[in-house]
Amino acid sequence: MGASNSLWHAIDEARREEEELRECTFTGEEVSGLFATGLELAEVILSGCKFHHCDFTGSNFYRCTLKDCLFDDCRFSDSYWKETALTGSKAEGCDFRGCRFKHCILVGNLLRYANFNQSVWERSTVTECDLREAFLSEMRLKQATFQKADFTRAELFRTALDGLDLTDCILEGVTASETCAEFRGATLSAAQAAEVARLLGVKIQ
């Protein structure tokens, strides 16, 4: 599946020639089983594309736009994203371990169950994204911003949230360390503070 479309061939040729995929636009294409490890994409636009069981491990995304795309059982571990926008897309359960986002924008994405353990977020903004039950442990956040993100039952173990304003985010049932040190220095609403207190075993009358 996918061997007949231009996106598949463009990526395959870029990998064989050891060249980057640059200044291309692909709309509504679907590929499955794509092996694209170490691929470099620059100023590429993917709109309404579907990827099934594809491997982008160690790939680099520079100034790309990924809009309304579906990523089903895809791997992005150790990938690098710079000045890239991911919007309106679905990547539930995908593997983003050890990836790095720098000057990126993520808006309205479904990222439930996704694994972002040990990832780095630098000067990036996450807005209205569904991160329910996602794995967000040991992340490094450098001037990152989260707005109206849903962290319900997400795992935040050893991720320092210092300096973040999380007042419009959902933090119900999150997993943290026994001391909840992850929240030290973060700005929380009264309801969120009560939720953290509950994690600590504190009863608020």
Residue stretches low in confidence (pLDDT < 50, at least 5 long) are: none
Helix percent reads: 10-25%
Radius of gyration, taken over Cα atoms and rounded to an integer in Å: 18 Å
Mean pLDDT: 93
Series of secondary-structure elements, N-terminal to C-terminal:
HEEEEEEEEEEEEEEEEEH
Anisotropy-based shape: elongated
Strand arrangement, major sheet: 1-4-7-10-12-14-16
Describe the structure using short key phrases.
205 residues, alpha/beta, 7-stranded parallel beta sheet, 2 helices, 10% helix
Account of the 3D structure:
It is elongated, with a radius of gyration of 18 Å. The strands form three sheets. Strands 1-4-7-10-12-14-16 form a seven-stranded parallel beta sheet. It has a seven-stranded parallel beta sheet with strand order 2-5-8-11-13-15-17, with no helix packed on it. The protein is 10% helix and 24% strand. With 205 residues, the protein is of the alpha/beta class.
